[in-house]
Amino acid sequence: MSTPTATHLIALLAHSRGFLNDVTLHDTDYANAVLVHGRFDFESYTENLFDKLALRCPASLSTALPIRRAEFLAGRAMARAALLALGQAAPEIPIGPDGAPLWPRYSAGSITHARGHSACFAIADGSWHAGVDVEALASGHALESILCMTTNAAERALIARQTALPPARLATLLFSAKETLFKALYPLARRFFGFDCAELRTGPANGRLRLHLTQALCRELPEHEPYDIRFNIAEDYVFTWLAVRRLQDESVQPGQSIRHSASFFNSAEPTA
């Protein structure tokens, strides 16, 4: 970690007054890219933290619940830390017309938050699409819902028989990986698609989970196309990330990352 990056993270934690904790940078296995993850404590959230962290609360969130503003603040704090870690300018990242973050033209990224976790995967290259997701490890009813709503019979059989990870961890990881895949591919597919459009056929290996498309999403995204989702598993959460190249004839415009489809299990707009 460079000295300027370390200095910024120290200042970020100090100015957040206990709202942000455990902010760390992770290697992504992509060139000129970084993943920043942290925890946020809603009990420590106050409205003046936007000023303390030099971030703007958009007018569109003025009537939102405080937890939504807290999630937005945590996500934008991770995004700024990621851009600074890449040596990039870190302007405000506004919400676009479709609810997606509008990234600077020279970069690409994705933001996520869930249950007190927030993360940003950013690339210092605007010729990519990015996806990232963080999930608390599921158990009980949440685990049953994931298995029922986001996996097919073949995937459930694989989760049960494989030995690389405990079944609950792999189920949570698969859910997260499908969320990440959706975020990264939506700008190319330009349509919503559900969990059944991607399938796990082999167990995790070398920090990657390979998903195959079960149907063509568009001409450039054919059936059976494989995608290796990077992942990291901690004691109580997992996060996954993916970057895919823009099409050669696709114009590089900010704001083409996406909000979640309502058909997805966790549709609480984690990208904004």
Automatic annotation (TrEMBL):
GO-annotated molecular function: transferase activity
Please state the pathway this protein functions in, per its UniProt record: Siderophore biosynthesis; enterobactin biosynthesis
Record-annotated 4'-phosphopantetheinyl transferase domain positions? 131-212
Specify whether Hydrolase is a keyword of the entry.
no
Is Disulfide bond found in the keyword set?
Answer: no
What is the reaction catalyzed? Answer: apo-[aryl-carrier protein] + CoA = holo-[aryl-carrier protein] + adenosine 3',5'-bisphosphate + H(+); apo-[peptidyl-carrier protein] + CoA = holo-[peptidyl-carrier protein] + adenosine 3',5'-bisphosphate + H(+)
Q: Check the record and name the SUPFAM superfamilies matching this protein.
A: 4'-phosphopantetheinyl transferase
> Which residue range or ranges hold the 4'-phosphopantetheinyl transferase N-terminal domain?
61-120
Highest taxon of the lineage:
Bacteria
Query: What's the short name of a Pfam family annotated to this entry?
Result: ACPS
Query: What keywords does the record list, in alphabetical order?
Result: Enterobactin biosynthesis, Transferase
Task: Sum up the protein's function in the record's words.
Answer: Involved in the biosynthesis of the siderophore enterobactin (enterochelin), which is a macrocyclic trimeric lactone of N-(2,3-dihydroxybenzoyl)-serine. The serine trilactone serves as a scaffolding for the three catechol functionalities that provide hexadentate coordination for the tightly ligated iron(2+) atoms.
Name the family.
Belongs to the P-Pant transferase superfamily. EntD family.
Q: What interactions and quaternary structure are annotated?
A: EntB, EntD, EntE, and EntF form a multienzyme complex called enterobactin synthase.
Q: What is the protein name stated in its UniProt record? A: Enterobactin synthase component D
